[in-house]
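Re: the 425-residue chain
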Amino acid sequence: MAGQRYFYTMNEVILTGLDIGSSMIRIVVGQAVQKDNVSQLNVIGVVEVPSQGVSKGSVVSIEDAVSSLSAAIEKAERMIGLPIKDLWVAISGTHIKSQESLGVVAISRATGEIQDSDVERVIDQARSTAVPVNYEIIHIIPRSFSVDNQTDIKDPVGMSGIKLEVSTQVIRGLSPQIKNLTRCIHRVGVDINDLILSNLAAAEAVLTDRQKEVGVAVIDIGATTTNLVVFEDGELYYASILPIGSNHITSDLAIGLRTSLEVAERVKIDAGHCLSKNFDKKEEINLQDFGGDDQAFSKKFVAEIIEARTEEIFQKVDEELQRIHRSGLLPAGIMLVGGGAKLPGIVEVGRRKTMLPVSIGTLPKFNTAVDRVSDVSFATALGLVMWGYQAHNQTLNKRYGFGNKIQIIKDAAAKVKDWIKGLMS
């Protein structure tokens, strides 16, 4: 597969989202179909394979990660009957950091009219003050602009003034970690269209513009990390990645039930519940039914173990919200995605610990014969496809002059493909 190039017609563009997790690699393949100046996205493939060589969102073994990734891409190609040439890739990991950065520039032209070039300059100025040594910017997202004494401006182009300021949210990651991820993907012979923070992609799939405007959080509970993003006034307000996930629940069960991790994982998936109050001590499970020894435990005891760790996850989330003064203050509440979000009773625990409305994210409907695309564990991979679809439509709008202008989260970094190739040099 390495070194081959594939081409598709304008009317049939393949868009592939890749979510490399610590326990699973998930791929969603979409097809953008253009007919009579109307664009439509169909989902034609959904793939999930076990992940190796990845821990807490970071590559720890390139050979193992390449092997898992190669198996996932081959499986996706067999499913759709087409080659995959490029990917929209989610990036995560505890090395990802989020911070606010400000930029200020003067408008020197006589008319004082602000142009696109001025917006680019002020964002570049914000970027130049926000990158520590050994870090790379993944996204720089303008939150609001100020022109002279007028604040909270969304789009300053065309306005007049002598000073332009911008408040941005900068998402950055460790250069070596980014380089390891991109190297793995290039090793299997595919290109990278863009690297997207995983929770930004998930938010693309489960949030409405209204929710982003009034204030909302998306929590992606993965195997070894819990990813948090907060939106307010229509833009990203905060992002954080916590080093705790559903695998910690499995470990707790293995210790509490004195059994193997494999048996504990089956107990969690098949008999796990987050609310111990729902069970009587007389209700029991036998580990023999889950591939373990002949040992009986009450369902209440199992739920108590799961509930304690789930409460800790939401406690840490609330501590992050307290840090940005948004604890209990997000009108649209919290949307849960990821494999860990499927535990029964988790919504009630989340409401109790955060004092916010909590619900499981709902993925949009597409023309598809693949039922699994509605599973919240695929929210990130599906969001990547939707991200690519919007970028594809935006390109068509510029090239052919039809359709509505697509609003996408603004990324003021240099062309991503050139940047990624620079990492590989």
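DSSP finds eleven helices and 18 strands in the chain.
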